Amino acid sequence: MGAVNDTFDVLVIGAGPAGTSAALRAAELGARVGVVEGGSRTGGTCVNTGCVPTRVLAKTARLMREVRTADTYGITVTEQAISWRTTVARVRSTVQRVLDVKDEPDRLAAAGVELMLGHRARFVGPHELELEGSGRRVRGESIILCVGGHSRRLPIPGAELATVPEQVLDLHEVPRRLAVIGAGNTGAQLVTIFSAFGSQVTLLEVAPRILAPADADVSAEVTRAFTEQGVRVVTGVETVESLARTDVGIALTWQAGGEQHRATFDVVVMATGWPASIEGLGLEAAGVHAERGRIPVDEYLRTDVEHIYVAGDADGESMLVQAAHSEAEAAARNAVLGATRRASHHLLPSGGFTDPDYAGVGLTEDQARERDRDCLVATVPYASMERAIIDDRPRGFLKLVADRRRELLLGAHAVGENAVEVIQAVTTAMAAGVDVATLAKVEFAYPTYSAVIGVAARRLLAQPATPEG
Ligand SMILES: Cc1cc2nc3c(=O)[nH]c(=O)nc-3n(C[C@H](O)[C@H](O)[C@H](O)COP(=O)(O)OP(=O)(O)OC[C@H]3O[C@@H](n4cnc5c(N)ncnc54)[C@H](O)[C@@H]3O)c2cc1C
Ligand SMILES: NC(=O)c1ccc[n+]([C@@H]2O[C@H](COP(=O)([O-])OP(=O)(O)OC[C@H]3O[C@@H](n4cnc5c(N)ncnc54)[C@H](O)[C@@H]3O)[C@@H](O)[C@H]2O)c1
Fold first, then answer.
1. Is 313 marked as binding a ligand?
2. Domains of the chain as residue ranges with CATH
3. Which atom of ligand 1 is the closest one to the Cα of 148?
4. 282 is known to lie in a ligand binding site
5. I want to staple 378 with a disulfide (CB 3.0 to 4.6 A). Which of 47, 89, 307, 460 is the partner?
6. What is the pTM of this model?
7. Which ligand is nearest to the CA of 318?
8. How much is the ipTM here?
9. A single Gene Ontology molecular function, please (predicted)?
């Protein structure tokens, strides 16, 4: 065993959104900080294989849709075929441009943080890590695990034949017949992308509905849209049994409604979950326990070993960039100044770029009614909004959920064009403590999608407040 040859106040493992934020914050607080990243570049899942590539593909899907309807505006477009090779090249060049703009290695260096790229870290003791490849040992007085997660193959026969989301860009062509297993945010977005590119898509989900954590009406509306677009949506699947190579493709077998089903596809994508990347991390050498694909933490983001924290996807809480940033901020502060900052996931807006888009913040209607069945709800269809009519995007709605005195906004959920931006605007109002009456008075530029917020707030106000029970 080599000797520990470098010591840091805070050692961060992983340079995705959580790791970079944690390192910069810890350095700002005066700590000597090192970051170990196993990949050859910073950015993590988000920039390299997740949000950024998916968003470029979503834009491509949107362009495809616009091209297909361009003739209704008098524009003749004859060629509607997609060149997958060009699309992939576009995704890769965009990822590079984002990396260039973020310029994280230079920002870390400027903050005095040592970035150790291209080495996976493995615990060899509670404070010590060994860097794969170099054998270098580093020590951290505090350690923040920002190792993120990765896709999961179902433990079934033939699972190796499946494509996982990180491999989608490696496909040789757009599949003619595609099965997507798992209708979370990843699966749903892949459905829209490949459906727009011309694949015949089947979506299989074990939960009773797609996008299960979303508001039930959001899930229903996206399901309707998928079905109208020709996607076969199968929810309540009992089990996916196997994949097998045949002469004509990959035969996929599943159980639903008490019966066995079988269909053949060119590609089967498994988007069935996102466990923490703890393989080979040597958590046992540090005494940190992991369970069910995550590293549990307390309210201060500490593991069961006091000086070891977790931020980002690896703790299995809200797996979003915005959550990674806020957890990183709290973990860095706690690591440097002592554990006083609680992680808060209050007001975490999120959404996905399907067609139509969907988004939400705060309590769903069902969650709000569980707390108080007399909470108030106003839903405004996009079809009643002029901007949506002008753009011929009438599908969708905004739903606002408020307390029974119609003062506090408890949640907001939307489907439709620009849903994520609309929900962001509501989130800003909620964060500022704006009450429903004030929101109802805000002027919205004409014609905008966000004007739906004012209409929904006025509808909430028009309802009689329910007296306290
Ligand atoms: C397809 C897809 C689309 C998404 N789209 C969105 C979106 O639109 N909006 C949104 O908010 N979120 C989105 N997400 C989620 C988002 O990508 C994650 O929440 C975010 O990347 C989490 O950041 P992180 O830093 O915790 O982990 P990651 O980004 O996964 O970074 C972890 C880093 O740790 C490194 N690492 C792991 N183990 C070790 C080790 N032992 N030693 C050294 N380094 C190690 C990895 O190489 C990686 O660089 C998407 C996810 C996917 C899969
Ligand atoms: N736009 C975004 O913000 C965005 C996009 C992608 C991912 N993410 C985040 O990344 C994380 C991972 O997302 P994800 O969608 O990859 O995973 P997920 O865990 O959110 O969803 C996996 C889905 O697969 C289903 N599933 C599991 N086993 C199955 C089986 N045997 N058969 C059929 N269905 C099965 C689950 O019920 C679930 O709906 C999430 O936290 C997500 O919020 C965010």
1. yes
2. 7-59+85-150+275-337 (3.50.50.60), 159-270 (3.50.50.60), 356-462 (3.30.390.30)
3. 27
4. no
5. 460
6. 0.97
7. 2
8. 0.99
9. oxidoreductase activity, acting on a sulfur group of donors, NAD(P) as acceptor
